[in-house]
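look at this record:
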Amino acid sequence: QVQLVESGGGLVEPGGSLRLSCAASGSVFSINTMGWYRQAPGKQRELVAAITSRGNTNYADSVKDRFTISRDNAKNTMYLQMNALKPEDTAVYYCNLRPSLTTIPYDYWGQGTQVTVSS
């Protein structure tokens, strides 16, 4: 079993910054992809950014050049630095972990943390 614990969400004004953290514990396989998803009320959950164990990244077009994803493999911890935040970034942000070397894909999810961007 894998447990994902998120922190760093909160309320910020437009143009502000937040840094989210996600710490993984339990039976974490070292070769994996971790990512951040978000879901706003009435909308589908969408991928924000993802990062592999080796540091390869990809971003949603809506956050490219504003958000930066990173990870510390020794701590099994992932981060999301969010800058130039916009009201449309308001959502519940979820941490995701997907072991890479499995026959059947399986996703682990955090509980979600609220990010609100408002003046």
User: Anything to note?
Assistant: The two ends are 40 Å apart (CA to CA). The mean pLDDT is 96. Residues 4 and 81 are 18 Å apart (CA to CA). The first strand starts at residue 2 and ends at 7.
